[in-house]
Amino acid sequence: TNMRFDLDGLDVFFPYDRIYAEQYQYMRALKQTLDAAHEGRISAAAGDGIPTNNTNASYRGSHCLLEMPTGTGKTVSLLSLITSYQFAHPDRTGKLVYCTRTVPEMNAVMKELGVVLKYRMEQLELDGSLRVGGGVVSEEEEEKEKVEVTTSVRVVQDGNVGDDGNGEGQEVVKKRKIYTAKKRVKEKSKSGGGIAGPHKDLGLLALCLSSRRNMCIHDRVINESDREAVDAACRGMTASWVLEKSRKDPGSIETCPYFDSFTADGGEGTSLPTGIFDLEELKKWGSVKGWCPYFLTRRAINHANVLVFNYQYLLDPKIAKMVSAELEAEFTKGLWSKQPVL
Going by DSSP bridges, is the β-strand pair 193-194/275-277 parallel, antiparallel, or unpaired? Predict the structure, then answer.
């Protein structure tokens, strides 16, 4: 069995049958932090407009510094609580930005996230509260989703119904209601992508972002000796001056077919479906579509609900300026008060 429990009013989906006291305390502290951030924004908005000064603590939200012993399940605790909070309060939460040190750690986080979301979908299907694309079906919406079906029921009075179905009695027409949530889920399950499993159509997009070396699918470039060589080879085929020269004199200089295809399709045509995309899944998707996984992910991170990358992409100013420019605008506007950055 697994655990689904109420934590101070929040429906938490925890995919294992046991939970340590430290895990429960950890999740409770996270929830209290998110609640405090939300209450702070409400208080700020109730004043003379929302302040634009990012030093205002009530607008920036709350911060927490938590520590747990090694091996006590920090990752699953964090993912269970944050994704449950996102699911219950989509209007007040933003991205979960999860920072790791290594690629194996990144892959482990994505695998654990798949376990959490698979369990959540199973639970929501069981109680009939799953909304295609994410969210919970309200009581009012539930009434709208019921279908009235007319059935005939023969009520026998003062007699028995014979083998031929005849007999003394009165035929009464009744109506029954059938809930069709699971049927809609099955019809919708054809959409989505990423790590295989029934959690792919929950309306959540989770992405990994790593270096070009870990995401490139160009046959020649990926055989370069080290990361610097891969970066140089990539820039040598995707730089603006290279593309301009290729446009003016086709065939005069080598360009990357995956990058060319990606930029040619452009816009929403290169968006990702909902799903959990680790590095391998991103490379598979890029190979099928003919798009560069690295630049595809950089474009898609603004639409992601969960983003996993190396901590240097967030903390190192030089790398952050190049790689996380898409998120920098949100940060400078003070909107990251909505987002748990871990």
Answer: parallel
* pLDDT for residue 12: 95
Q: Hey, which bits of the chain come out as E strands?
A: 3-7, 10-14, 96-100, 146-155, 170-179, 193-194, 205-209, 275-277, 306-310
| Among the listed residues 150, 139, 141, 137, the one whose alpha carbon sits nearest the alpha carbon of residue 177 | 150
The total number of residues written for the chain in this structure: 342
Which residues are 337's β-sheet partners? none
- Supply the pLDDT for residue 202: 62
CA distance 95 to 336: 9
Task: Tell whether pTM > 0.90.
Answer: no
For residue 8, give Cα distances in angstroms to 43, 67, 231, 315: 21, 21, 48, 33
What's the CA gap between 10 and 87, in Å, rounded?
10
Position 39 scores a pLDDT of 78
Pull the structure tokens for residue 317: 């100013």
Q: Which two tokens stand for residue 238?
A: 């995707």
Which tokens is 308 given? 């996993």
What are the pLDDT digits (tens) for 115-164?
999 999 889 888 775 554 444 555 554 444 433 333 333 333 344 434 34
| Sites in the chain below the pLDDT cut of 70 | 1-2, 42-62, 129-203, 266-270, 322-342
Please work out, in degrees rounded to the nearest 5, the angle formed at the alpha carbon of residue 191 by the alpha carbons of 109 and 104. Answer: 15
A 10 A CB-CB count for 132 gives 17
Residue 32: phi and psi, rounded to 5, are -60, -35
CA distance 199 to 232: 38
**Residue among 289, 279, 331, 267 nearest 309 (CA):** 279
- Closest by CA position to 66, among listed 107, 35, 9, 23: 23
Q: Give the pLDDT confidence of 228-269 residue by residue, as tens digits.
A: 999 999 999 999 999 999 999 988 899 999 999 998 876 555
pLDDT the model gives residue 175 = 40
Q: Which residue has the tokens 């270096």?
A: 211
- CB–CB of 222/230 below 8 Å? yes
Q: How many CA atoms lie within 13 A of 3 on its CB side?
A: 16
Dig out the tokens for 275 from the structure.
């799903």
